[in-house]
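Lecture 7 notes: from sequence to structure.
We start with the chain below.
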Amino acid sequence: MSNNSRKLIIASNRLPFVLERDGDSWKLIPGSGGLVTAMAPVLRDRGGTWIGWPGIAGKVDISDHLASASTSAGFDMKPVYLEEEDVKQYYIGLSNEVLWPLFHDLQSYCNFNPSYWQAYIDINARFARVISENAGPEDFIWVHDYHLLATASELKKLGMQTSIAFFLHIPFPPLDIFAKLPWRTEILHSMLAYDIVGFQTLRDRRNFLQCLRTFVDDISIEGKGQVLTARSGGRSIRIGYFPISIDYDEFSHMAESREVADAAWYIHEDIPKGKIVLGVDRLDYTKGIPYRFRAFEKFLEEHPDLHRKITLVQVVVPSRRNIPVYEDLKIEIERMVGEINGRFTRSGWVPIHYIFRSLSRPELLGYYRTAEIALITPLKDGMNLVAKEYCASNIEQSGVLILSEFAGAAPQMKKGAILVNPYSIEEVSKAIFDAWRMDLRERRMRMKKLQGSVAKNDIYWWVNSFLNVSIDRKLDDFPPV
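Predicted structure tokens for the same chain:
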């Protein structure tokens, strides 16, 4: 088989768009989040296939929409359909009421409903069937994230012989937290059905290996460096860490465009006084937004002389609104915005500008260009690509990045960013003040380091490093068609 017939097959819970009802028809909205940001540029024009759920319950004829979206994106899209009960048990249930909070060390949010596990296995089997129908023997199957931990074991049941890789975009928890999972052994054995398992950071790989040694009887670990080999059940599985990134050139070039420059100008017109502190997050309790607001409130209390000279712009992208805890979080965020603005607002100045919607790419980059300070303080994050997007878009090289030490990006960005403990109100408040008063020379020195690191280790570096380990190939072996 020639290289031209070799394809990348990507499987993730969602297709790279959101399908929403628009009157009597449907409309496609581009997806957000790290996976779409990272993988869409890689697949573009390579003739690959992205398999995932279109985001609606039931089987609806969306073939025309998929064809249009595929043409626009430069790769094929194949749907996996979920019914209402599937969404409740597999997506809202095990994926987002168990794995998501547990893997972010927030086990108090977990709901260990016994019925969730079988639904999770059933949907992973459904994904496996669609993958097997669309993958050839020379294709590279790359499964993504916590929704599909058991897909490889289901593919093996269907007789799939080709190499199957997996990448976890969220953190992997330490042993004492993972041990609370009722299906801990089943999860580990399912992950060992993959041929390569990738994590974001050394920390995540270390946690995974400790869990393997504790709960898998016949496991042995060999090697050193970025990629180790686990042997279990007569099989060898490579286990590595590969920090994901962005298309640096795309962000930096677009940030220089007239469209983004105009967006930045309008932002300056709307917020003409002082420096802008920017937060951009999905609606999620892992992002630490209430702690961030308390830190900004403390900053305002301690520095009344800086009122009118600084404004926090907090963008919250709607997410998982059908899960009650997320709606509760939205209410809490809006209550805090009202409370802080009620205390500190003065004529001509509002301390927090709150935006609850998705932003277009030019508008988002306009905020990246305009903001003198990025405040990115998740309680825990697999990587956090917003931090990297901010740096790539900061073409004046004058921005300051304040970053949680619990973000996966922290080890890579620690030489240029101000690292903080997001739980420490005092520490984050002080970091805001230090960033506000930092002189231009130091800001540029820090930003150049950050940009150099992100540019060198961009999304194509990430894919190539993963493919090299997986199948001794590079992205160029999957040429554009």
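Points to note: Residues 3-244+459-477 form a domain with the Rossmann fold fold (CATH 3.40.50.2000). The CA atoms of residues 420 and 456 lie 25 Å apart.
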